[in-house]
Design goal:
single chain
Length: about 325
């Protein structure tokens, strides 16, 4: 992954070797094939690499964080499987989604197995008992927060009352904790004290929404791995930052906003290509896309300011700074 910071790339090979060994350890009827398919669809392995990087920066041995790093990658894929089913997405990373490949019942069953395995990795790792307990608590906390955010995302789709406060609440719950978990867990494995963890959670609360905003913008291009389909978030009626800002700032005419709500609220299959193009053009014409970019930049700047609170040397802070820059500049 040439676009990833070098400090993160350095851990990818170690992760892949560990993942392959762990995934091939046992075979389970009607489950293993689904597991292999899901993990073979790729992904940047950003979160588990950040776990190893954080452990290293906080003075720990990164290999000791491998089980938790894999648990965070399993959590990521567990959530993607559910997200694809809930959204009706049939393509991800330019391949068929798991449920489209093996059906909803089997996909859900594979995901259920995955989350159980994630907890197994945490509790079976050769770490002190109190460290494993801290990791389990953090993992459970993040999973609950993320599901809360997804509940808002699902049930506020196409709502005319969505504003930026709503958007940031969703983004914080759905993305911020989830992004911070790997580097918090890596620091825990390294033996970091509780006081050192709050700045890491805070960094997630700043950078998570920036990550989500970048995702919103990528969804309006061909860069999201949906087989070339553009505007999936519009089809799904998601309360994106563009949608929230357009309504709150009363962009365009009243007729424009009414048309926007009608398009976003419509059933996915009923949304035409012409309507998708109209929404994207509306966002561009009314400087809504530029607003989103500026918001991502503002949050990136605030994230960088949080680095001063981290108990790390300058090289460690620079490694986190590179991660922040990658998040706001990434193309996919």
């Amino acid at each position: 992954m040439p676009d990833l910071p070098l400090s993160v790339q350095n851990h990818i090979l170690t992760l892949e070797e560990y993942f392959q060994a762990e995934n091939s350890r046992n075979t389970y009827d009607f489950i293993t094939d689904g597991l292999n398919y899901q993990f073979a669809t790729g992904g940047k392995r950003l979160r588990p690499a950040l776990c190893l990087l954080s452990c290293e920066l906080f003075g720990g041995e990164p290999t000791r964080a491998l089980p938790f790093a894999m648990a965070t990658e399993i959590l990521h894929n567990f959530l993607l499987i559910h997200d694809d089913i809930e959204d009706g997405d049939v393509m991800r990373r330019d391949k068929k989604t798991l449920w489209a490949e093996i059906g909803v019942p089997n996909a859900l069953n594979v995901a259920d197995f995955m989350i159980a395995r994630a907890y197994g990795l945490i509790t079976e790792s050769k770490l002190p008992g109190d460290t494993s307990l801290r990791l389990c608590r953090a993992f459970s906390h993040v999973l609950q927060r993320t599901v809360e955010g997804q509940a808002l995302d699902i049930n506020l789709r196409g709502e005319a009352s969505v504003n930026l406060e709503t958007y940031y609440r969703i983004a914080t719950l759905k993305t911020a904790y989830y992004l911070a978990l790997p580097w918090v867990g890596g620091a825990m494995v390294a033996g970091a004290e509780e006081g050192s963890l709050e700045p890491l959670w805070k960094l997630g609360r700043r950078l998570g929404p920036a990550f989500q905003i970048r995702d919103d913008l990528i969804a309006l291009t061909e860069g999201k791995g949906r087989g070339g389909e553009v505007g999936c978030d519009i089809r799904e009626g998601k309360p994106s930052i563009c949608y929230a800002h357009a309504l709150e700032a009363q962009k365009g005419t009243e007729e424009d906003r009414q048309k926007l709500v009608e398009i976003v609220r419509a059933e996915r299959d009923a949304t035409t290509e012409e309507e998708i193009c109209w929404v994207i053009d509306f966002y561009d014409r009314e400087q809504i896309l530029e607003f989103a970019r500026q918001e991502a930049g503002r949050l990136a700047k605030e994230s960088i300011e949080v680095l001063a609170e981290l108990p790390l040397h300058d090289e460690g802070k620079e490694a986190f700074r590179e991660v922040i820059q990658f998040v706001v500049d990434r193309k996919a």
